[in-house]
Design goal:
The chain is an alpha+beta fold and 121 residues long. The protein has a single domain, classed as 2-Layer Sandwich (Nucleotidyltransferase, domain 5), CATH 3.30.420. The protein contains 4 helices and 4 strands, in the order αβββααβα. The radius of gyration is 14 Å and the shape is globular. The N and C termini lie far apart (32 Å).
C-alpha cells in the first residue's frame, strides 16, 4: 500500500470513530477487523476500556465448520457467534464500527448476521 492510501484509510477510520462517539449514548461498539485470511469482531465498552465479547474466524469450533476464513460465509458465522456471546454478556444494543472498511461484502454480512441473531444497531 502506498503512503497516500494508508493516510486516506486512517482518515476514514478516524472519521468513522468520531461519528460513533457522537451517537453512542453509552452503548458499546461492535468493532470489525478484516484481514486477507480472517475476520474478527469485538464488542468494546469504551467507557470502561474493556472487551465484553469477541469472535473470529480463528475460533476452534468455527474453523472446523468453515472452508475459508475470509469469505462471506465466515463473516456470517462470526456475526452470529459475536451476537450470541454479546447476549450472554448482557449486551443487547451496540453501535457498529466498520473502521476504515466500506459497508459491503464481508463487513455487511457480519453486520446482517449479528442483527438477525438479536443484536440491535
Amino acid at each position: 500500500m502506498s503512503n497516500t492510501t494508508k493516510m486516506l484509510a486512517a482518515r476514514r477510520k478516524a472519521r468513522t470513530r468520531n461519528q460513533i462517539r457522537k451517537v453512542a449514548n453509552g452503548r458499546p461498539r461492535l468493532s470489525v477487523f478484516r484481514s486477507s485470511k480472517h475476520i474478527y469482531a469485538q464488542i468494546i465498552d469504551d467507557a470502561a476500556g474493556r472487551t465484553l465479547a469477541a469472535a473470529s474466524s480463528l475460533d476452534a469450533d468455527l474453523r472446523k465448520k468453515l472452508k475459508n476464513g475470509a469469505d462471506v460465509a465466515a463473516a456470517t458465522e462470526v456475526g452470529k457467534l459475536v451476537a450470541e456471546r454479546a447476549k450472554a454478556a448482557g449486551v443487547e444494543a451496540v453501535v457498529f464500527d466498520r473502521g476504515a472498511y466500506r459497508y459491503h461484502g464481508r463487513v455487511k454480512a457480519l453486520a446482517d448476521a449479528a442483527r438477525e441473531s438479536g443484536l440491535s444497531f
